[in-house]
Amino acid sequence: MAMTMTQKIMADHAGLESVKAGDLIEAKLDLVLGNDVTTPVAIDVFRNAGFTKVFDNEKIAIVLDHYTPCKDIKSAQLCKKARDFANEQNITNFFDVGCVGIEHALLPEKGLVGPGDMIIGADSHTCTYGALGAFSTGVGSTDMAAGMAAGENWFKVPEAIKITLKGSLKPYVTGKDVILHLIGLIGVDGALYKSMEFTGEGVASLSMDDRFTIANMAIEAGGKNGIFPVDEKTLEYCKDRFTRPVKAYEADADAVYEREVVIDLDTLEPTVSLPHLPSNTKTAAEVKGMKIDQAVIGSCTNGRISDMRAAAQILKGRKVADGVRCIVIPATQDVYMQCIEEGLTKIFIEAGCAVSTPTCGPCLGGHMGCMCEGERAVATTNRNFVGRMGHTASEVILASPYVAAASAVAGCIALPEDL
Amino acid sequence: MARGTVFKYGDNVDTDVIIPARYLNNPAEEELAKHCMEDIDADFVKKVQPGDIMIGGFNFGCGSSREHAPLSIRAAGASCVIAKSFARIFYRNAINIGFPILECPEACDKINAGDTVSVDFSTGVITDETTGEQFQAAAFPPFIENIIANGGLLSYLKARL
Ligand code: SF4
Questions:
Q1: pTM score, two decimals?
Q2: What percent of chain A has pLDDT over 90?
Q3: What is the Cα gyration radius of chain B?
Q4: How many Cβ atoms from other residues are within 10 Å of residue B146's Cβ?
Q5: DSSP class of residue B86?
Q6: Are the C-beta atoms of residues B32 and B71 closer than 8 Å to each other?
Q7: Is residue A55 less than 8 Å (CB to CB) from chain B?
Q8: Is any atom of ligand 1 closer than 6 Å to the C-beta of A328?
Q9: Cross-chain residue pair B63–A146, CB shorter than 8 Å
């Protein structure tokens, strides 16, 4: 029976010769992830069920990234609970303030996830690691608890959508524009329960950071996972990081897909998602001039070094517009350090940006940039739901770092060439 | 069995409106219950009675993986959610905590807000007592039924390990 890439990874981890869409399987996990919001709930579930020991203290990652450095007493209590558990269980991959980064930027960077892995994380954007050719998917806290207890979990084998990429991107067009365009095309439930398998000659032209951004937002199309083939760039990225053996799975030539979507990268323009759904896309050119109060450049979608470089390229020698707050958040300590070494931090500060230690912060309306009623942000984050960055009467427009930075300078949605 | 009044919402009800992130710093169920749905329906927690039924459209529960979402709906008093389709993480979370959810597009189209509805979980039959109409929801596969019958994922695991 021909299988997709996702199905092959699932079959191997379930100890089966083959699987097909719709099968319910129980599969072994290579890593189980949780953060400061979801881990405390998982700890209660784990303990209430009578478990006392995690299945493997090296295969669990706990990342305190959402409300840290703690925004209030309650979040400090949540972090303490996660920290105490990590100590008690001797969790080796525990990341606290000072070494923490946003989980989905951090785990690949630390080499904790890699090609062929089967990963669950109690965070919906766990699908990010599909960029490396892993099966990884977001789950809830009970799933995390089950994963911590047993090192395995249940899955329904998904059907797949084949997304064929052709050509290569024009200047100032990025992975963010690819995924926003795709979500606009298929809708926020266009890939519901399905795996999104990226393929085609266009893949080779995309940087790893572009692929992370694309896989990150598979969930915004309802996808169970988004996955890229393993190629030279993947192997180069994994070198000196990922220490386990690389397993590069390939879809069978005759694998069955529910449908195919072809995207010609050459034709894509900088794209934005207007409030309040990621699928509400327009080209940035179409909505030029929409006033903004805030620009946020960061998150697990676009907080990597190439995103910082893109933003700095635009902000260099320019000033953030009067009346606009521009908040730049490198996603990890390594990215932060690189920003300093490359002089990007200086560019940001000279332009009038606030630069922060890694945190999810404003992305989920947690802290570090919540908005009040009537305010509008352009953000490189991944969700623009009602109330996502603060008040329910505030708005978020999703965009690439180029567009977000250009808009911060212009004071309204703008393209780099407008400046 | 469940029986109650229907609260009806549209497509793509996301977990940020089911329980906004500003309340996630306190996962106690009674706290979550106080703020359930407040960003799209501030009246929900004031009006909901134990047993009441929530109806959504397509892609119910999309967005963040927060298990706080089904927990808050249950803690607020709702007995189940009927939707045209569920976002997959919400679907898993509900099953894993043993909170009943049903997929039935027809019921979602035809049942009105405020109707009295009863649901037989064993058969998947949904009855709109106000209009007298009946609908059949899709049945769970046996594997998932087994998880629910065991009282959720962790008890199922415990029984197996
Ligand atoms: S940056 Fe935003 S989307 Fe990413 S993990 Fe943090 S809160 Fe979630």
A1: 0.95
A2: 100
A3: 15
A4: 13
A5: B
A6: yes
A7: no
A8: no
A9: no
**What six digits make up the tokens of A418?**
């407008």
Cβ–Cβ gap B87/A222 under 8 Å = yes
The structure tokens listed for A347 are 């560019």
Cis peptide bond upstream of A13, omega within 30: no
A142 touches chain B (CB under 8 A): yes
CA distance B86 to B84: 7
Q: Which residue of A has its CA nearest to B64?
A: A124
Give the closest residue to A188 by CA, choosing from A157, A227, A223. A223
Following DSSP, what letter does each residue of B21-36 receive, concatenated?
A: GGGTT---HHHHHHHT
Identify the segments of chain B with pLDDT beneath 70: none
3-state SS, residue A335: helix
What's the rounded Cα separation, in Å, for the pair B74 and B81?
A: 9
Question: What pLDDT does residue B15 have?
Answer: 95
B47–chain A Cβ distance below 8 A for any pair:
no
Is any ligand 1 atom within 6 A of the Cβ of residue A368?
Answer: no
Strand partners, B118: B3, B127
pLDDT score of A100 more than 90: yes
Yes or no, beta carbons of B92 and A140 under 8 Å apart: yes
Which is it for the CA torsion A317, A321, A325, A328, positive or negative? negative
Asked if residues A144 and A42 have their Cβ atoms less than 8 Å apart, the reply is: yes
- Cα separation of B90 and A49, whole Å? 21
- Please tell me chain B's helix, strand, coil percentages from 3-state DSSP, rounded to the nearest 5: 35, 20, 45
Q: Is A110 exposed, middle or buried (0-12, 13-18, 19+ CB in 10 A)?
A: middle
* Residue in A closest to B16 by C-alpha: A388
Share above pLDDT 70 across residues of chain A, in percent, rounded to a whole number: 100
Predicted-complex ipTM score: 0.90
